[in-house]
């Protein structure tokens, strides 16, 4: 994505509606750090306190989680391990909770990078869970996890973990408490680790749909009634809610001391730099500023989502209902798959992607995100208004040409 679109300096550049970055808040975070001044000292350039994050950073994150995720029992700084991004944590989780070729249950659709995060270096097997039209946020979902589990085990793949992304990427929806509990019970029964990625937890915004489910964290109720605490692991990072993807800051919370020790050992290869830790701690410690930052972020996401929905409505493009979280939504471009473009709809979807790129607009398509049906895309709407309008204008032009 070298030639980025800019209305004045690069109007012919690529409009990126694909990467899940919160552009609406990037300047706010930069202004905050600039206004605070970092005042780095010599000791900030030594090796630091070890491959789990400084006490200061872990205390800052524990305080943040306790304030914003409403945990049933307070999170302790000692239960957190920091790595350079959630991505690194996923990779290390594979190396600690599973053997190569063990299976990981992943919802369809799902976050594009989960399969590679767990399988590229670490060789865990993604086992995709289709829902066949059932609502994957409802209790019905559990039957489908059961089915995928059974089939995998019968074919010789041992399932070791279930990845729960809440709020969900790419659907932008939250799981109700009863489904979280049912999935915990499923994991408990099968001795499967539940990995709860809540990286979009603070990016829940107001929508006109009263049926949208509010966010509730796995930590916010007495989960130990449903799942052994050694089997629940919570992952959170600063890439999304804090608009700090480039800071590479991810935290693992687990009560499983053996697992935490194992991750910290491998983390020698992946721990964040000290200066980055200082920046992250600075952000986490200013509660008053953070409260207003998060409020502003939710307001801007709501406004941008509203505009994106209006643009879709105007163009007659359908989208999944009930989305109220994350930086994206799930749209249905299947009516625009062109019969002449390939032997099946997956090929036609690929062709549509190419046409979009020719028109200099980038969106992630459903195939890479394990969509069950072809023709679905995930536009990111956390963009400045002119960029959003330009991106959708190019998208609509592409569809009209098709
Ligand atoms: C659900 C989810 N988890 C994790 C990540 C990546 O986190 P990090 O940048 O901390 O590696 C993303 C990025 O898009 C994501 O969507």
Automatic annotation (TrEMBL):
Amino-acid biosynthesis in keyword set: no
Keywords (A to Z) from UniProt: Pyridoxal phosphate
An example Gene Ontology biological process: amino acid metabolic process
Highest rank taxon of the organism: Eukaryota
Residue ranges of domain Aminotransferase class I/classII large in the record: 15-391
GO MF entries: pyridoxal phosphate binding; transaminase activity
Record Pfam families: Aminotran_1_2 (PF00155)
UniProt xrefs under PANTHER family: AMINOTRANSFERASE CLASS I_CLASSII DOMAIN-CONTAINING PROTEIN, BIFUNCTIONAL ASPARTATE AMINOTRANSFERASE AND GLUTAMATE/ASPARTATE-PREPHENATE AMINOTRANSFERASE-RELATED
The name this protein goes by in its record: 1-aminocyclopropane-1-carboxylate synthase 1
Organism of provenance: Zopfia rhizophila CBS 207.26
